[in-house]
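Q: Predict the bound structure with 3-phosphoglyceric acid.
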Amino acid sequence: MAIYNPFIPHENRCEREKVVHFHELVKDMKVLVATDKPFAKAAVDGIRKIVEGAGYELALLEKYTEEAQLLAAVADANALIIRSDKVTPAVVDAAKKLKIVVRAGAGYDNVDLPSATAKGIVVMNTPGQNSNAVAELAIGMMIFMARNKFQPGTGSEIQGKTLGIHAYGNVGRLVALKGKSLGMSVYAYDPFVTDKAVYERDGVVAVDSVEELYAKSQYLSLNIPATEQTKKSIGQKLLMSMPKGATVVNTARKEVMDEDGLLAALLEREDLKYATDIAAGNQAELDEKAGARVFATSKKMGAETGEANINAGLAAANQIVDFFKTGNTRFQVNK
Ligand code: 3PG
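A: Predicted complex:
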């Protein structure tokens, strides 16, 4: 893919000099932080320090309720930092000066890559920066469900149970390690991580198919991104194959679930449980029909820790400064 290079070529300069030259030419560089779900104050302070330290201006748009507010705010921004905020074709169109969008987090399914790419806008994420927070929430939800949502009555322990990790990326691996330290037997499946040594070094057993993973897992941690291939990929058949009393924990995206299949499985199997950090489209029906066996956080909170906000927010700011000053595109996702 050809990305528009903001660093205007100048035959007689070395690459680095060209970049610095461009940086010096651009006055009034504006970095917009647009977060419907704001970062912790310490993270915003850290972002400001990095951005202003580089000589740029920081603009903040927090807790906005209408896309129109984002369209207005982004109009003169050269760089944009977001969380799960949607960068639609309309946002790209309104962003006349935008060169870079950094999604402070892992999943970038909220950014319309084709329109950003068509306008030569570099899109990056900050992989790994909020993974520990998400992994801790996944373990927390397992215990919460095992203990009947902390309601009176006899629950169970997660020690000694099987844990399946669906996708062995940054979050999946951390859930696996935490599960192991809690005495769980951990299995994993990831079609993109085929080297068994990666799993072996963590004491995790790699299985050969998604079917085998679900059939083995008393707890299943979903860590797959939402892509055209994964959307609605977890359905009734996989869920029905899980062991008695199994719990699926979704800290990934609601789109990966076939929600009709999920409802059907929960109705047919009165022992199955589902806990999610992203309410399903049919969450009200799930709550009504499966009651105590389902749980959804009120707003996605996997990455809602001060530590994760600081890690991801500061990484985003540093990546923007580095991009403008040195042309570094290491974390670009639309290459
Ligand atoms: C991610 O993809 O990094 C997580 O889903 C966190 O999303 P958030 O920044 O909107 O909390």
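A: Confidence is low (pLDDT under 50) at residues 1-18.
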